[in-house]
Amino acid sequence: MKAGMKLGLALMLAMSTALAHDYQVGDLKIAHPWTRATPPAAKMGGVFLSVNNLGAEGDTLLKAESPVAEVAELHQMEILDGVMKMRKVESLAVPARGELKLAPGGLHIMLINLKQGLKEGEKIPLKLTFAKAGVVEVKVRVEAMGSKGVAPGEKH
Ligand SMILES: [Cu+2]
After folding, report:
1. 25: CA distance to ligand 1 center in Å?
2. Closest Cα partner for 37 from 89, 111, 102, 137?
3. Is residue 105 part of a domain?
4. How far is the centre of ligand 1, averaged over its atoms, from the C-alpha of 150 (Å)?
5. Quick check: is 12 in a domain?
6. How high is the pLDDT of residue 41?
């Protein structure tokens, strides 16, 4: 009976971890990488996630790679002459005991020249390279096409 309860508890813990959809590499915790479903002919998609740094030293996100896209770039948004534009950046800082947040309308990882449409419910692999913590492979959950997407008129 007791052993059974312990097993049940272990299973529940394992399940809640799976639902949380978190990854850890060194002092960095990567939470909930996600993207949006794309129309079949779409060539680009944005990936969002957050990186929490539990360590006392800052780190840097240097690179992202995914087999579903020819290139993955680190992008930031900025307003030029009143128009929101995206721009490639070489790296993104993860402050010590701080957070790097990639979210719609802000920083994101741009998947360029998608080799396949992204379908809701799928999980696509993404490899992240950090200067200090090293390389981690995460699964990006494809969520519904939609609302908080790249707004019309935004350009590269
Ligand atoms: Cu972009």
Report:
1. 25
2. 111
3. yes
4. 9
5. no
6. 87
Q: How confident is the model at residue 2 (pLDDT cuts 50, 70, 90)?
A: low
HSE-CB of 19 using CA atoms within 13 angstroms: 6
Number of structural domains (the chain) is 1
Q: What is residue 118's DSSP assignment? A: P
Query: Does 133 reside within a domain?
Result: yes
CA of 155 to the centre of ligand 1 (A): 8
- For residue range 14-73, what is the model confidence (pLDDT) as tens digits? 554 445 589 999 999 999 999 999 988 899 999 999 999 999 999 999 999 999 999 999
- For ligand 1, a single-atom ion, the residues with CB < 5 A are 75, 86, 110
C-alpha 28 – ligand 1 centre gap (Å): 24
- For tokens 């770039």, the residue is 73
Residue with tokens 């394992």: 14
Q: What is the mean pLDDT of residues 74-99?
A: 94
Ligand 1: centre distance to CA 109 (Å): 7
Q: pTM of the full predicted structure? A: 0.81
CATH number at residue 27: 2.60.40.1890
Q: Domain range for residue 42?
A: 22-143
